[in-house]
Structure formats: C-alpha cells, structure tokens
Amino acid sequence: MTGSPSLPGPGAEGSPRDQGLGPRAAAVLVFGSSAAVLVVEIVALRLLAPYLGLTLETSTLVIGIALTAIAVGSWLGGRLADQVDPRRLIGPSLGVSGAVVALTPAVLRTAAEWAPALLLLIASLAILVPGALLSAVTPIVTKLRLTSLAETGTVVGRLSGVGTVGAIVGTVLTGFVLVSRLPVSGILIGLGTLLVVGSAVVEWRTRRWRGTGTPALTLAVVAGGLGTAVAPGGCDAETRYHCARVVADPDRDSGRTLVLDGLRHSYVDVDDPTFLEFAYVRAIASAVDAAFPEGEPLTAHHLGGGGLTLPRYLAATRPGTRSLVSEIDSGVVRIDRERLGLRPGAGIDVRVEDGRLGLRALAADSRDLVVGDAFGGVSVPWHLTTVEAMADVRRVLVPDGLYVANLIDHGGMDFARAEVATLDEAFEHVAVVGEPADIGLDTTATATSDGGNLVVLASDRPLDLRATQKALDARRTGWRTTTGDDLTSWIAGARPLTDDYAPVDQLLQPSTTRRGD
Description:
There is one protein chain. This protein is an alpha/beta fold. It contains 17 helices and twelve strands. Strands 7-6-5-8-9-11-10-12 form an eight-stranded mixed sheet, sandwiched between helices. Helix 2 (about 55-85) packs across helix 4, helix 3 (about 90-115) runs parallel beside helix 8 and helix 7 (about 185-205) packs antiparallel against helix 8. The longest helix has 30 residues, at about 25-50.
C-alpha cells in the first residue's frame, strides 16, 4: 500500500502531543522569538547611538548584523533540528539569548568607556548571538510540528506567517511604545527576563523540567541588572533620541549644561539668559544683533531646540520677540521645563515636531529670522540640509530676513563645505563665520584646522559683515567672517545637497574627542 510519507503521528513517541508542543504553543514560541529579534535590533541601535551616532552607517551596520543573525540562526537551527532531538534545543536557545540580552547594556556601556576599540566587536556579538539563537527557534518548532510530509506547506507557511507578524509587532511596539516609556536598559533586561522565564516554561512543558541551566541564566539576568546600575555612561533621562544629562557649572551657580549622547549640546544660565557660554552661540547672537536694530522684536523660527539658549536670549534682549521652536524630542522639552527653567509666557512656543514638517506648515513671508541648530557632532538630520529644505526656509522668511545656522564638522570639512554650497544655491548672499584656520583665512605654515563649530549666514539682502565682525570682537570669540571669492575658494567646488543626493553621514567627519562646543 502506498501513500504520503509520514512522520510519527500524534500518538507516537516524539510526536507534538508527547513533546507538549501544540499548535498554539508553537505559534507563541515563533511569534515571541521573532518579535524579540526585532526588539534587540532596534534597541541596540539606540544603545549605540551615543557612541557611534544615529547615522546611516550605524543603522546599516545594526540591520546588517541582525539579518546575518537571522540567516545564520535559521540555517543552523534547521540543521541541528534534523540531527538532535528538537526538544533539547528550544529551552537553551531562549535562555542563553535572554542572558546575553540582559547583560548587553552593562557590557556595551563599559566597553564604550573603557575599551572603545572593542566596541564594534562586542556590539556585533551582542546582536549576533541572541539574534541567531532566537532565529533558530522557528525551524526547530517547525520540525516539531511536522507530523506528515503532506502538511509541510501548511505548517511551514503558517509558522513563517506567524514569525513575520511577530517581527512586525516587535518593531512597532518598540518604536512607538517601549522606547518612549522605558529606558533602553530596562527594555533589554525585561526582555532577557522574559526569555529566561520562557526557557524554563518550555523545559517544563517539553522535557518535564530536565534543564539544569536555569539558575545560572537567572543569575546572568540579575548580574545584567546590577551591572547596568553601576556601568559608566548613565543618563539623567533616556529620551526617544538621546541619553540626556544636566550638569551644573561648578564655577557659576546658575549655569547648567545639557549633555546629549556624551556631547555638550547647550549651556543655559537659568538666571541670566544673556550669558552665552559657547562660542558658536555668541557668533549667532552677534550675527542677529548686526542684522537687526537693537531691541527690535523679531518673529523667529528655530529648527532644533536643545536647551533653548537662543530663544531665551532673544526674549531677554528683544522684548516682544516671538520664537517658535521645532524640537523633535519631547524628552528634551521636558528637561527644559523641569531642569532648565523654561517658564510659560516667555514668548517661546515649543512644538514637538520634525523641523522640516514644522517649517513646511509656516506661512510664507512670516519670519524675520530662522535659526538652524539641529545638527550634532555625530549625526545630522540630512533632510534639513538640502536645497529643497533651504527653499522652504527662504519661503517663510520676509524679503530681508536672515537664516543663520550652526554647523559642526572636522577633518576636511566636507559636510560644512557642501552645506554652504547648498545655501549658495538658495540665497543671494552667504557668509561663514568661524575660526580663521577652519574657514581658510589663516594660511600660515603653523595654522591647522581642528574643525568644530561654524556659523553660516544666508539672506537675500546684503549682509553687514563689518557690523558682524565688530560684534564678534566685542564678544571675544576670535572668529572671523568670510564671503565672496574667499568663500568660493573655501567651498572648493563642493556639490550642493538635495533631497535626491545628501550623503551627509559620509561627508561628516566627527570629532575624535567626546566633548562638543
């Protein structure tokens, strides 16, 4: 008698019934393990951002490692399931991955501070090991659920679909819920705990508690929690985008520094908003003071908020000024209100929104001043750098309005030169303010360009650079201005950035130090 080849039936030794793995349990395992892989991937990206930047390269690296883990885990899981009793594999896969996940925050942060040369290797292993172990669960469970070759398509298709749905849920849950409500370390330690518990449950269901490794895995999770508490690189708050701290100035009682991802982002004097610590902020203030009559109230829009140093300065020196701020990170806005003294009625309206979308919503000819201060030392929101974005800036400015932006670059200054070339495409008049060596004005043999902050000015009216230089000198910045042929020579044929071509992550050269201006 002939028929379809079959695997052991439901009542046979080794069948799903004996193994305690029915269709619902199988679906839960595949769903949960697939979701966990995506949670680890997304949270790892956030965990690495303070050290590598939230850049295209970092995202590509993490995605590539995660996909490698999925491929390796799926291949090895299927191969092992054919050679070893699958019941012996699921519990260890979940438990070991849970222990690694729980230890990841402490290990990565310690490596970043004490062994930065090993950070990429350790980060790769922290994603690869749990990702491969969790991805192995699907082929193992599929092997357990197959009782007949006649139902291969049904079983494989169903579990593949369940795994895909799990990955989608893990992605959405992490991006929209977990990261906004929990610290990154809490997410990973919580996930590690769930995986170890899941491992114990699977061991009990499939092998009637033959596993002896659960206590050790539990200790690893506890160690991960304790290690995270004492590991370097702690934050006052983990926002959606940043590891944030507020540091008091020991030399100035009312001075506060907002540190985002290890870089000094803003300095605020909560009692005296006219005190400007950072040189680039003094340069922006000098450009604004030179462009508009003293004390005249302005209507301003700020792309990026941070500590709101410039909006506070404008409110104090130009009473009646109305500043609208587009700040994408609600956690930073909360810090402004709770730790940096932002009070209602100061003429500062902060909206939690993407800068380009906020810009697009503004009416034409509605702003005297637009300030771009959303660029960081290790990452840049590229969509705020393009010709199209600058066209929107020009649209919302009044005819004699001013755009002033803080740029950060080092090395060959490729990004800064490309951005200035972009502004040169959009505006009639452009000038750059910075250290003489950084902008090509100091060509002596001993002059070296260290890079750092530059300030670029753009307008459709002529810029009063003599008044700007006088204001810079009064604030003792040591900075100079350049425009015309000198600026053209400094740009050196850099290609303008567009929505279709803006490789800012490749152009930007981050600082080799952990300190920003």
